[in-house]
Design a protein that fits this description.
Structural class of chain B: alpha+beta
Radius of gyration of chain B: 17 Å
CATH topology of chain B: Arc Repressor Mutant, subunit A
Number of helices of chain B: 5
Number of domains of chain B: 1
Number of domains of chain A: 2
Distance between the termini of chain A: 54 Å
CATH architecture of chain B: Orthogonal Bundle
Strand content of chain A: 15-25%
Order of helices and strands of chain B: HHEHHEEH
Largest interface: A-B, 19 and 20 residues
Structural class of chain A: alpha+beta
Strand order of the largest sheet of chain B: 1-3-2
Shape of chain B: elongated
Number of helices of chain A: 4
CATH class of chain B: Mainly Alpha
Helix content of chain B: 55-70%
Radius of gyration of chain A: 19 Å
Oligomer: heterodimer
Strand order of the largest sheet of chain A: 1-3-2
Number of strands of chain B: 3
Number of strands of chain A: 6
Largest sheet of chain A: 3 strands, antiparallel
Helix content of chain A: 40-55%
Shape of chain A: globular
CATH superfamily of chain B: Winged helix-like DNA-binding domain superfamily/Winged helix DNA-binding domain
Chain lengths: ~180, ~110
Protein backbone atom coordinates (compact mmCIF):
# COMPACT_ATOMS: atom_id res chain seq x y z
CA UNK A 1 0.00 0.00 0.00
CA UNK A 2 1.47 3.35 -0.99
CA UNK A 3 1.05 6.27 1.32
CA UNK A 4 -1.72 8.60 0.32
CA UNK A 5 -1.34 12.36 0.25
CA UNK A 6 -4.19 14.49 1.49
CA UNK A 7 -4.47 18.16 0.54
CA UNK A 8 -6.32 20.75 2.60
CA UNK A 9 -6.81 24.45 2.17
CA UNK A 10 -6.69 26.43 5.39
CA UNK A 11 -5.90 30.09 5.71
CA UNK A 12 -3.84 31.38 8.62
CA UNK A 13 -2.61 34.91 9.24
CA UNK A 14 1.11 35.03 10.01
CA UNK A 15 0.49 35.86 13.69
CA UNK A 16 -1.59 32.70 14.13
CA UNK A 17 1.23 30.36 15.11
CA UNK A 18 -0.69 28.85 18.02
CA UNK A 19 -3.73 28.15 15.82
CA UNK A 20 -1.52 26.48 13.20
CA UNK A 21 0.24 24.38 15.81
CA UNK A 22 -3.06 23.20 17.30
CA UNK A 23 -4.49 22.36 13.89
CA UNK A 24 -1.38 20.43 12.82
CA UNK A 25 -1.42 18.47 16.09
CA UNK A 26 -5.11 17.64 15.59
CA UNK A 27 -4.38 16.50 12.02
CA UNK A 28 -1.54 14.26 13.27
CA UNK A 29 -3.94 12.70 15.79
CA UNK A 30 -6.02 11.68 12.75
CA UNK A 31 -2.93 10.21 11.09
CA UNK A 32 -2.30 13.17 8.78
CA UNK A 33 1.33 14.28 8.96
CA UNK A 34 2.47 17.55 7.44
CA UNK A 35 4.49 17.14 4.23
CA UNK A 36 4.42 20.41 2.32
CA UNK A 37 2.82 23.81 2.06
CA UNK A 38 2.38 26.32 -0.75
CA UNK A 39 1.91 30.06 -1.05
CA UNK A 40 -1.90 29.82 -1.25
CA UNK A 41 -1.88 27.80 1.98
CA UNK A 42 -2.71 24.42 0.52
CA UNK A 43 -1.32 22.01 3.07
CA UNK A 44 -0.23 18.51 2.05
CA UNK A 45 -0.33 15.68 4.54
CA UNK A 46 0.96 12.16 4.37
CA UNK A 47 -1.49 9.60 5.65
CA UNK A 48 -0.02 7.37 8.34
CA UNK A 49 -0.59 6.06 11.82
CA UNK A 50 -2.33 8.50 14.19
CA UNK A 51 0.17 9.96 16.67
CA UNK A 52 0.32 12.80 19.19
CA UNK A 53 2.83 15.00 17.37
CA UNK A 54 3.48 18.53 18.61
CA UNK A 55 4.31 21.17 16.00
CA UNK A 56 6.10 24.49 16.50
CA UNK A 57 6.33 27.26 13.94
CA UNK A 58 9.28 29.62 13.64
CA UNK A 59 10.25 32.27 11.14
CA UNK A 60 13.75 33.40 10.21
CA UNK A 61 15.36 35.30 7.34
CA UNK A 62 18.47 33.20 7.81
CA UNK A 63 19.19 29.58 7.01
CA UNK A 64 19.17 27.22 10.00
CA UNK A 65 22.70 27.09 11.39
CA UNK A 66 24.17 23.59 11.85
CA UNK A 67 24.74 24.14 15.59
CA UNK A 68 21.14 25.28 16.04
CA UNK A 69 19.76 22.33 14.09
CA UNK A 70 21.91 20.01 16.21
CA UNK A 71 20.55 21.52 19.43
CA UNK A 72 16.95 21.12 18.23
CA UNK A 73 17.59 17.53 17.14
CA UNK A 74 19.30 16.73 20.46
CA UNK A 75 16.16 18.03 22.17
CA UNK A 76 14.04 15.70 20.04
CA UNK A 77 12.81 18.08 17.31
CA UNK A 78 12.75 17.15 13.65
CA UNK A 79 12.21 19.53 10.77
CA UNK A 80 8.78 18.96 9.23
CA UNK A 81 9.25 21.52 6.47
CA UNK A 82 10.74 24.88 5.54
CA UNK A 83 8.86 27.32 3.35
CA UNK A 84 9.71 30.95 2.53
CA UNK A 85 11.50 31.45 5.85
CA UNK A 86 8.87 29.55 7.83
CA UNK A 87 10.20 26.58 9.76
CA UNK A 88 7.93 23.84 11.03
CA UNK A 89 9.41 21.59 13.70
CA UNK A 90 7.76 18.57 15.24
CA UNK A 91 8.31 16.19 18.10
CA UNK A 92 6.41 13.46 19.86
CA UNK A 93 4.32 14.64 22.81
CA UNK A 94 5.36 12.90 26.03
CA UNK A 95 2.42 11.97 28.28
CA UNK A 96 0.37 14.63 26.54
CA UNK A 97 2.96 17.27 27.46
CA UNK A 98 3.68 19.69 24.64
CA UNK A 99 7.33 20.84 24.63
CA UNK A 100 8.25 24.34 23.50
CA UNK A 101 11.09 25.59 21.32
CA UNK A 102 10.74 29.06 22.81
CA UNK A 103 10.11 29.10 26.53
CA UNK A 104 9.73 32.81 27.28
CA UNK A 105 7.71 35.69 25.85
CA UNK A 106 10.78 37.58 24.59
CA UNK A 107 12.08 34.75 22.44
CA UNK A 108 8.53 33.84 21.36
CA UNK A 109 8.04 37.37 20.02
CA UNK A 110 11.35 37.54 18.14
CA UNK A 111 10.05 35.70 15.06
CA UNK A 112 7.17 38.17 14.74
CA UNK A 113 9.51 41.15 14.97
CA UNK A 114 11.68 39.62 12.21
CA UNK A 115 8.61 38.99 10.06
CA UNK A 116 7.26 42.48 10.67
CA UNK A 117 10.54 43.98 9.49
CA UNK A 118 10.52 41.83 6.36
CA UNK A 119 6.92 42.74 5.42
CA UNK A 120 7.68 46.45 5.87
CA UNK A 121 10.76 46.18 3.63
CA UNK A 122 8.77 44.28 0.99
CA UNK A 123 5.60 46.42 1.05
CA UNK A 124 6.93 49.96 1.32
CA UNK A 125 8.44 50.19 -2.20
CA UNK A 126 5.28 48.81 -3.83
CA UNK A 127 3.11 51.14 -1.73
CA UNK A 128 5.18 54.13 -2.80
CA UNK A 129 4.99 53.05 -6.43
CA UNK A 130 1.23 52.66 -6.34
CA UNK A 131 0.59 55.94 -4.56
CA UNK A 132 2.97 57.79 -6.85
CA UNK A 133 1.26 60.76 -8.58
CA UNK A 134 3.17 60.09 -11.80
CA UNK A 135 1.01 58.77 -14.67
CA UNK A 136 3.71 56.29 -15.64
CA UNK A 137 3.47 54.52 -12.33
CA UNK A 138 0.65 53.79 -9.92
CA UNK A 139 -2.60 51.89 -10.21
CA UNK A 140 -3.54 53.37 -13.60
CA UNK A 141 -0.84 51.42 -15.38
CA UNK A 142 -2.10 48.04 -14.26
CA UNK A 143 -4.55 45.87 -16.18
CA UNK A 144 -7.67 44.78 -14.26
CA UNK A 145 -6.60 41.28 -13.24
CA UNK A 146 -3.19 42.53 -12.18
CA UNK A 147 -4.81 45.37 -10.26
CA UNK A 148 -7.00 42.94 -8.32
CA UNK A 149 -4.03 40.68 -7.60
CA UNK A 150 -1.76 43.52 -6.48
CA UNK A 151 -4.56 45.00 -4.39
CA UNK A 152 -5.22 41.67 -2.70
CA UNK A 153 -1.53 41.14 -1.99
CA UNK A 154 -1.15 44.62 -0.53
CA UNK A 155 -4.29 44.29 1.55
CA UNK A 156 -3.07 40.94 2.88
CA UNK A 157 0.25 42.53 3.80
CA UNK A 158 -1.49 45.44 5.55
CA UNK A 159 -3.76 43.15 7.58
CA UNK A 160 -0.73 40.98 8.40
CA UNK A 161 1.20 44.03 9.56
CA UNK A 162 -1.57 45.19 11.87
CA UNK A 163 -2.14 41.70 13.29
CA UNK A 164 1.60 41.09 13.80
CA UNK A 165 1.99 44.48 15.47
CA UNK A 166 -0.84 43.69 17.88
CA UNK A 167 0.65 40.26 18.64
CA UNK A 168 4.11 41.72 19.33
CA UNK A 169 2.57 44.27 21.73
CA UNK A 170 0.60 41.55 23.53
CA UNK A 171 3.74 39.43 23.95
CA UNK A 172 5.67 42.46 25.18
CA UNK A 173 3.02 43.08 27.86
CA UNK A 174 3.33 39.44 28.96
CA UNK A 175 7.03 40.04 29.61
CA UNK A 176 6.35 42.62 32.28
CA UNK B 1 33.86 47.41 39.16
CA UNK B 2 30.42 46.67 40.60
CA UNK B 3 28.91 49.34 38.37
CA UNK B 4 30.23 47.59 35.29
CA UNK B 5 28.79 44.26 36.40
CA UNK B 6 25.51 45.89 37.39
CA UNK B 7 24.53 46.61 33.81
CA UNK B 8 24.08 42.86 33.19
CA UNK B 9 21.75 42.55 36.19
CA UNK B 10 19.22 41.36 37.10
CA UNK B 11 19.67 38.19 35.08
CA UNK B 12 16.53 36.51 33.77
CA UNK B 13 15.79 33.16 35.34
CA UNK B 14 16.85 31.35 32.13
CA UNK B 15 20.11 33.30 31.82
CA UNK B 16 20.88 32.82 35.51
CA UNK B 17 20.47 29.06 35.22
CA UNK B 18 22.59 28.89 32.05
CA UNK B 19 25.46 30.59 33.92
CA UNK B 20 24.96 28.30 36.92
CA UNK B 21 24.92 25.18 34.70
CA UNK B 22 28.23 26.31 33.18
CA UNK B 23 30.21 25.61 36.35
CA UNK B 24 31.66 23.01 33.97
CA UNK B 25 31.96 23.27 30.15
CA UNK B 26 28.80 21.89 28.51
CA UNK B 27 26.95 21.82 25.20
CA UNK B 28 23.43 23.11 24.67
CA UNK B 29 21.34 20.03 25.25
CA UNK B 30 23.35 19.06 28.35
CA UNK B 31 22.63 22.57 29.70
CA UNK B 32 18.89 22.14 29.02
CA UNK B 33 18.81 18.85 30.93
CA UNK B 34 20.96 20.13 33.79
CA UNK B 35 18.86 23.28 34.26
CA UNK B 36 15.63 21.30 34.37
CA UNK B 37 17.15 18.91 36.93
CA UNK B 38 18.80 21.41 39.28
CA UNK B 39 15.83 23.80 39.21
CA UNK B 40 13.67 20.84 40.26
CA UNK B 41 11.64 21.19 37.09
CA UNK B 42 10.83 24.87 37.69
CA UNK B 43 12.87 26.14 34.76
CA UNK B 44 12.61 24.41 31.39
CA UNK B 45 14.50 26.24 28.63
CA UNK B 46 13.46 25.56 25.04
CA UNK B 47 16.23 25.03 22.46
CA UNK B 48 15.29 28.19 20.54
CA UNK B 49 15.37 30.32 23.67
CA UNK B 50 18.66 28.76 24.75
CA UNK B 51 20.25 29.45 21.38
CA UNK B 52 19.25 33.12 21.73
CA UNK B 53 20.69 33.22 25.26
CA UNK B 54 23.99 31.81 23.93
CA UNK B 55 24.17 34.51 21.26
CA UNK B 56 23.56 37.30 23.80
CA UNK B 57 25.92 35.90 26.45
CA UNK B 58 28.66 35.32 23.89
CA UNK B 59 28.30 38.90 22.64
CA UNK B 60 28.52 40.14 26.24
CA UNK B 61 31.60 37.92 26.72
CA UNK B 62 30.05 36.23 29.76
CA UNK B 63 30.50 32.82 28.12
CA UNK B 64 32.80 31.56 25.40
CA UNK B 65 32.90 28.61 23.06
CA UNK B 66 35.75 26.33 24.15
CA UNK B 67 35.42 23.67 21.45
CA UNK B 68 33.06 22.00 19.06
CA UNK B 69 32.15 18.32 18.98
CA UNK B 70 30.15 17.14 15.97
CA UNK B 71 28.35 20.46 15.44
CA UNK B 72 27.75 20.80 19.19
CA UNK B 73 29.28 23.98 20.59
CA UNK B 74 30.69 23.55 24.07
CA UNK B 75 30.57 26.66 26.20
CA UNK B 76 32.35 27.73 29.38
CA UNK B 77 31.98 30.70 31.70
CA UNK B 78 34.48 33.55 31.26
CA UNK B 79 36.01 35.42 34.23
CA UNK B 80 33.54 38.21 33.58
CA UNK B 81 30.69 35.69 33.52
CA UNK B 82 31.79 34.30 36.87
CA UNK B 83 31.91 37.82 38.35
CA UNK B 84 28.43 38.67 37.05
CA UNK B 85 27.08 35.43 38.49
CA UNK B 86 28.76 36.14 41.85
CA UNK B 87 27.26 39.65 41.96
CA UNK B 88 23.81 38.29 41.11
CA UNK B 89 24.08 35.67 43.85
CA UNK B 90 25.23 38.32 46.37
CA UNK B 91 22.13 40.38 45.59
CA UNK B 92 19.85 37.36 45.71
CA UNK B 93 21.18 36.43 49.15
CA UNK B 94 20.11 39.87 50.39
CA UNK B 95 16.73 39.49 48.70
CA UNK B 96 16.24 36.08 50.29
CA UNK B 97 17.17 37.38 53.76
CA UNK B 98 14.75 40.29 53.44
CA UNK B 99 11.98 38.06 52.12
CA UNK B 100 12.35 35.66 55.02
CA UNK B 101 12.42 38.50 57.55
CA UNK B 102 9.22 39.96 56.09
CA UNK B 103 7.45 36.61 56.16
CA UNK B 104 8.55 35.98 59.78
CA UNK B 105 7.28 39.45 60.71
CA UNK B 106 3.92 38.76 59.03
CA UNK B 107 3.56 35.44 60.84
CA UNK B 108 4.21 37.17 64.19
CA UNK B 109 1.47 39.69 63.34
CA UNK B 110 -0.97 36.87 62.66
CA UNK B 111 -0.37 35.26 66.04
CA UNK B 112 -0.81 38.53 67.95
Amino acid sequence: MSTATVKRFKWFWPDQDIEQEQWLRAMALQGLHLKSLNLLQFWSFEQGAPADIVYRVDFSNEAIKPAYRQLLEDAGWKEALQFCGWQYWRTQAVNGRAPEIFSDAASKGAKFTRLLGLIVVVSVPSMLLIMSPSKNAGFGQLSWPLLVLTGAALLTNMVSLVRLGARVLRLRREQH
Amino acid sequence: MDDQLARYLPLSEATFYVLVALDEPLHGYAIMQKVEAISEGNVVIGPGTLYGVFTTLEKQALIQKVREEERRKIYALTDKGRQVLAEQVRRMAIMLRNGELALAHLRKGERA
